[in-house]
Every structure is written in structure tokens, then in C-alpha cells.
Design brief:
The complex is a heterodimer of chains A (183) and B (125).
Chain A lengths: L5 E17 L5 E2 L5 E2 L5 E5 L7 E4 L5 E3 L39 E3 L4 E2 L9 E6 L5 E4 L7 E3 L4 E5 L10 E4 L4 E8 L1
Antiparallel strand pairs in A: 1-4, 1-5, 1-6, 2-3, 7-14, 8-13, 9-12, 9-14, 10-11, 10-13
Chain B lengths: L5 E14 L6 E3 L7 E10 L3 E6 L3 E2 L6 E17 L6 E4 L5 E6 L6 E15 L1
The chains are: A mainly beta (183), B mainly beta (125).
């Protein structure tokens, strides 16, 4: 891929804690026996213990990352089929070379690194695109962060986090992830 | 569900951007090609939530299921988050930034503040 003049990542989080409650019934019984209004039902509202939403967003220069990421695999969105050297398409032939691999990386129950090397990572984003919870370790071999199916984590990482320290696994079975691991 | 049950809706997203030439505007990074986001509605059931504010280095708690940590203000210094009881700081928060995620019960999140900063957090247990 061509190397741009600069790269950055805008990131943010949004959290709404909720608590279930019983709504107030507005149901009344008419003289002839029919009812009007709405009976009490269970609904969700902002958690009264927390009493506010949480969240945040990067600002200013956001997360400044290296303009030359050195390898195309700094994101999972780069398909293994998108390599010009492999492209020998000819008009009139089946365009199978343009197929994609879905941008997802398989994760099994063996704790393993996504990218190898000792380079420090500035920003990390991982989304679980599968159906089994993904575990993420940033240091050591104890996965402290859990990523349920459909969920994602995004973070500005310190220089303690390198390619080699970012490890993913599942408790059992397999799932898939998409990622951004930027230096 | 029953009255008093709790859950947390959380989303994390990022937008990689690239600047083709010096002084130009930033566009969606062509290596990614799209904005990235994920969300989860995490049910805590009858478990509890709590909040707190830190102005100095402190642990958030133990045996937690969910944390959201926001650096609400940083006048000077840095704010780091570790998940191993303060041994290795793995996440940095600049002013206005938030880390939110479900965590393993064995994680021990500690916020390290050097300088003058205020950090708000909430937990689900």
C-alpha cells in the first residue's frame, strides 16, 4: 500500500448503565368491564446507582500513529488476496482473484499472538466478529479483557504493549476477530 | 428480567485516518476502508454497579466483571491503567478518553495518576 504523509486514529467509547424497573400502571377498568390505559410492565432506565452515562473520545491530535505501518497486516481489513504481485487477472477470465477472505482472523483456545515481533504498539482495536467470547491479554499470559461476540475494545496503549504481548484466545471452541494493531 | 436487574450497553469504536499530503485534510484510512465499531449489551443480572472518582493512584477493585474508566481532566502528568494490580501499565488515557470493557474476574485494575488529574470510573460486579 502507498504510504501516506500522516496517520492518526480517532477513537471513543460510550457506556450506558441501565436498571430494570416496573412502570406505573395507568390501567383503569371501565364501568362495562373493559380496560383502558397501560398495565405495569418492566422497562429499562438509566442505572440510579451510577446516575450518568460514561464515555469519552480522543481529541486534538487523537492517537498519532506511524505514517508508515511497515506491514499491510496492521489491520485485518487487508485481504490476503489484495497483493498486487498475485494479481494476474485477464479480461474474459473468471475474476476469482478479487475474492476476499472476510477480513477476519480465526482465534482458538490456544493463547497466541496476532502479530509477531517486539515493536511497541500505540493503538489497539479488536472486535469479536464470531459467536464465542474472545479473551485478550496485554501482558503475561492471563487474559484480563473479555470481548463478547459483537463487542469491541479500543485503547491507546503504552510502550509496555508490543506485538508479542498482545495475545488472544477463547475459553473453548473458535471465534473470529477483526483488528487494528498500529505502531 | 425483574425489577432491579442491571445491564450495561457499551460501544467502542475507532476511525483510522490518513493524510495524503502535508497540510491536507484527513480521510478514512484506505487500509481499513471503513469506520470500526462494536457493541455489547452486557447483563449483570442482580449484581451491583458502583462509581468512584480518583485524584491519585488507586485500585478500582477486585473480582469485577465490567469497568469504564474516564480521564475527566488532566492538568498535568499522565493517567495509566493496569490490569495486574499496578505492575504493568498497559493503557494510557488522555483527557476526555475512556476505556470500557468486560474484564475477567481475576483482573485487578489500578489507575496510576502522576501529576494532577481526575478520573471517574464505574464498575459492574
Amino acid at each position: 500500500m502507498a504510504v501516506p504523509n500522516d496517520r492518526r486514529i480517532v477513537y471513543g467509547s460510550f457506556v450506558v448503565p441501565q436498571i430494570a424497573f416496573n412502570t406505573t400502571s395507568t390501567e383503569v377498568t371501565r364501568e362495562e368491564g373493559s380496560t383502558a390505559g397501560t398495565a405495569s410492565y418492566e422497562d429499562w432506565k438509566l442505572d440510579t446507582t451510577v446516575a450518568k452515562r460514561f464515555g469519552g473520545k480522543s481529541s486534538g491530535d487523537h492517537v498519532q500513529i506511524t505514517h508508515d505501518q511497515a506491514e499491510d497486516i496492521w489491520t485485518s481489513m487487508t485481504s490476503s488476496f489484495q497483493i498486487w504481485e498475485l494479481f494476474d487477472e485477464k479480461w474474459g477470465l473468471s475474476p476469482s482473484i478479487w475474492g476476499t477472505d472476510g477480513s477476519s482472523v480465526a482465534v482458538d483456545n490456544s493463547l497466541s499472538v496476532i502479530r509477531s515481533g517486539s515493536t511497541a504498539v500505540k493503538f489497539l482495536y479488536i472486535k469479536n466478529t464470531g459467536t464465542v467470547e474472545c479473551q485478550l491479554a496485554l501482558e503475561g499470559d492471563e487474559p484480563d479483557i473479555l470481548i463478547p461476540p459483537g463487542a469491541a475494545v479500543s485503547m491507546r496503549t503504552t510502550s509496555s504493549v508490543t506485538f508479542a504481548t498482545i495475545k488472544v484466545a477463547t475459553a473453548s471452541s473458535t471465534t473470529t476477530i477483526e483488528y487494528v494493531i498500529a505502531i | 428480567m425483574s425489577a432491579g436487574d442491571k445491564r450495561v450497553l457499551y460501544r467502542n469504536h475507532c476511525v483510522p485516518q490518513e493524510q495524503v499530503g502535508s497540510g491536507n485534510r484527513y480521510y478514512l484510512d484506505s487500509d481499513c476502508g471503513r469506520k470500526l465499531t462494536g457493541e455489547n449489551l452486557y447483563s449483570l443480572g442482580s449484581n451491583t454497579t458502583a462509581t468512584g472518582t480518583l485524584t491519585s493512584t488507586n485500585a478500582i477493585g477486585t473480582t469485577l466483571d465490567f469497568i469504564a474508566v474516564t480521564a475527566t481532566s488532566i492538568s498535568s502528568g499522565t493517567v495509566y491503567l493496569s490490569l495486574d494490580n499496578g505492575t504493568t501499565q498497559v493503557i494510557e488515557l488522555l483527557e476526555g478518553e475512556c476505556f470500557a470493557s468486560k474484564i475477567a474476574s481475576g483482573a485487578q485494575p489500578v489507575v496510576t495518576i502522576s501529576g494532577t488529574a481526575t478520573v471517574d470510573y464505574m464498575t459492574g460486579t
